[in-house]
């Protein structure tokens, strides 16, 4: 991100803002293995089809997913799988933070015995 103009930084921030909603992350995770219809995603997420459709619309608008109509149904699939590398990187970082915190707490408990 070195020396990016303000407009580019705003686009990067918008990209991360789309990923900042847990429901959208859940949808992306469900699409990791296969394409799915709105109804199927709604059922698996436990949300209404209207709610899932709103999230899918935003994900489509920002290029995370691709929509394909088949008959009366719309199916969604991942447009760019690099989003998973980013999510895996973040999850690994969070896991390492949890491990450090657990080790610090364990050391504290050990000194009290």
Automatic annotation (TrEMBL):
Domain HTH arsR-type: 4-98
UniProt signal peptide: none
Keywords: DNA-binding, Transcription, Transcription regulation
Superkingdom classification of source: Bacteria
PANTHER family reported in the protein's UniProt record: ARSENICAL RESISTANCE OPERON REPRESSOR ARSR-RELATED, ARSR FAMILY TRANSCRIPTIONAL REGULATORY PROTEIN
Protein name: Winged helix-turn-helix transcriptional regulator
Protein species of origin: Ideonella paludis
């Amino acid at each position: 991100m070195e020396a990016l103009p303000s407009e580019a930084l705003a686009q990067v921030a918008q990209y991360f803002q789309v990923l900042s909603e847990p429901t959208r992350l859940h949808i992306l995770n469900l699409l990791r293995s296969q394409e799915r219809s709105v109804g199927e995603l709604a059922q698996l997420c436990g949300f209404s089809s209207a709610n899932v459709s709103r999230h899918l619309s935003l994900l489509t608008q920002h290029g995370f997913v691709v929509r394909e109509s088949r008959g009366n149904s719309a199916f969604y699939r991942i447009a760019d799988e690099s989003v998973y590398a980013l999510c895996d990187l973040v999850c690994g970082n969070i896991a390492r933070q949890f491990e450090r915190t657990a080790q610090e707490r364990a050391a504290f408990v050990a000194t009290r015995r």
